[in-house]
Structure formats: C-alpha cells, structure tokens
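Review this fold:
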Amino acid sequence: MPKMTEEEAWALDEEVTNNPPCVDPAKARHISRMVALDDFSANYLMSVSIGTHKTPSEIIGEILREKTSVSAL
C-alpha cells in the first residue's frame, strides 16, 4: 500500500466524516473500523491469516492481548 500524502489523508478524512456509511443497526454484526497498514504489516497479516485460518482482526486481537498481558506483569 503506497503512503498517502498529507493532502490525500485530509481528503479521505473529509470524505469519511461527511459521508458516513448507512448501516442498519438491526443488521450490523460488528463495528467496522478502517485501519491503514504498511505493506510489510499487511503481507504479514495475510500470510498468518492464510496459515492459521483466522481473520486479520483475530490475529491483531491476539497480538494486542499478548502485548498487554506481558506489559501488565
């Protein structure tokens, strides 16, 4: 994923802020969040995802729980 310029980032922010997605809360299963990753991180997540049959969100959650449990010691 190529890096965004500051101008592109502000344009994306304005687009998302002014045009929020139309979601029916009755049909929504989970909150969707937009996350920008560098190429290395995206490739790593996809490789682990394919190898473990888990979603990238599950992998990120596991990594964060591991990091927070280690830092709590």
User: Anything to note?
Assistant: The chain has a mean pLDDT of 84. The longest helix spans residues 56-71. The radius of gyration is 16 Å.
